[in-house]
Amino acid sequence: MLTADQIALIPGALAWFASDGSRIAATPAFVRLGLPEVLDAALIVLAQPPDAEEWCDTNLSRCTLSPPTTDGVRLLSVTPARADAVLLHQVLDRLPAIIHVKGSDGRYRVVNRVAAERWHTKVDDMLGRTAPECFPSSREQQRAVRVDADVLVDGAERSFRTQFDGLEVLGLKSRLKPAPGSLAVLSIGLDAQETARAERAATRHAALLEAIIEHSPEAILTMDAAQTILAFNPAAERLFATDHLRWIGTPARQLLAQVLPTVTAVQDGWHQHRAHRLDGSSFICDVASREILVEGEPIRTLMLRDITDQIAREEELIAAREAALSADRLKSQFLALLGHELRTPLHSIIGFAELMRDNAIDSTQTAWTAEILAGASGLLEVLSSMIDLMRIEAGMLTARPTPIDMGRMLRDRKRAWDPPGTAPERVSLHIAQHLPAVMADGPQVRQALDRVIANAVRFGGTVAPVDITAEADGSRMTITIRDHGPGMTPEAIAAALEPFRQVDTRLARAANGLGLGLPIAKGLIGLQGGALTVEPASDHGTRVTITLPTG
What we know:
By secondary structure, the protein is of the alpha+beta class. The chain has 5 domains: 4-82, no CATH class; 95-195, PAS domain (Beta-Lactamase, 2-Layer Sandwich), CATH 3.30.450; 216-306, Beta-Lactamase (2-Layer Sandwich), CATH 3.30.450; 312-393, Helix Hairpins (Orthogonal Bundle), CATH 1.10.287; 402-549, Heat Shock Protein 90, CATH 3.30.565. The protein contains 18 helices and 23 strands. It has a 5-stranded antiparallel sheet with strand order 8-7-11-10-9. The chain has a 5-stranded antiparallel sheet with strand order 13-12-16-15-14. Helix 12 packs antiparallel against helix 13, helix 13 (363-393) crosses helix 18 (517-527) and helix 15 packs antiparallel against helix 18 (517-527). The longest helix is centred in the middle third of the chain and has 51 residues, at 308-358. The radius of gyration is 48 Å and the shape is elongated.
């Protein structure tokens, strides 16, 4: 005979029985089938009826009982099909219902965990015992015994309602035949309070959904698989100027043919259509469709919303934007023309001032003419900047691309800022070898470079020379202009790229100008199909990067 420790290691559902049918020992898997047992002398022992064969048929169907050994011990093994009983018990224990099975002798043969908890007892304390034995003082349980007897006799299902220790249970009793010649009663019950709460919750949920649909601002139509209209909310009545009673139970195609003639088939997703009300008026609507399964049957829901006003507002905004852009272009054109008209007399003033300077008879006249020339030249520079910006914004300025030797142009710009024999150096130039030609408008690129270099020298060239590098990569050339000044924050950079704004620092307020240098340079580079970006340098200062297409 195996020891208890050896029995515990056997994975199968096995049990040993004596010749009189009593179970000597069983494996844990056998015990987990839910059969009652008594622990005695470290072995699981249970006295059973003398006939082991009958006991097997009653307690475990589909099992194999070996012939008796010389000492009268017989081996019981559960077949694989019966091994699913373990899974069945686990499922029963997890069901929220109160479930138990009584044999024809009135004893509990199956009790799930919920039933034991509701009766304030344990499963082991109920198995193998009758209801009066488990609950001797409960009249309701005694009445249940009589109902069980009736179910065993006629086999008819019976509903029941019972109370025990403050718990009210609603359920159903049915007759089972677990084995040939054997009968049992299955009882399935639910906590009446929990059922009532669930019903109230379901009712409230249904009412909530109905209220949402009834008060939804969107029109909602629901149809079945045959496209028969099942629901038609008030918003749909208002949208189509009709009554829902006219359409409930009718084919949806009859309604859709009148209100949505452009819809040939109901599709998932949102789609825009021209719709018609039944009073003859028309509107534009968004239509969404979704198919869902309700109790296994496909149900399709249509949601519709009138977007006529929304589209009208969008069109008004587009028209207003176009009007504003047109007005802005007209303003730019006007200012460009005005600047041109002002620049003509300024040239005359500058010309006559130069004649007066050249023919001055004394130092006083020379000083006065110098002041006139300085003021007129400064005003001319401001007007020229305004004219350039306005022409760019108004689209009056176009580029005439030609091949440009950028290396030569950059060296020319260095000589302009650092004439031979001057010191200290204001511009440091680093040009890669064998630079390809750039396809751009030469005068416009030169002006853009001069404006960027002027800004760099003005705001950062007092510490160290402005570094200019040029290199090409594929179809683009990159020119970097980096100063060593105090640098700018991202907010200051954004302000510097806007026309007529200056960076709000003491250095900027002390500087002259309208703040048009970088905006004009960016616009001129953009005309060449290039780009101009500004960013803080890694340590200090500011870096301006210009990219241009190569030829």
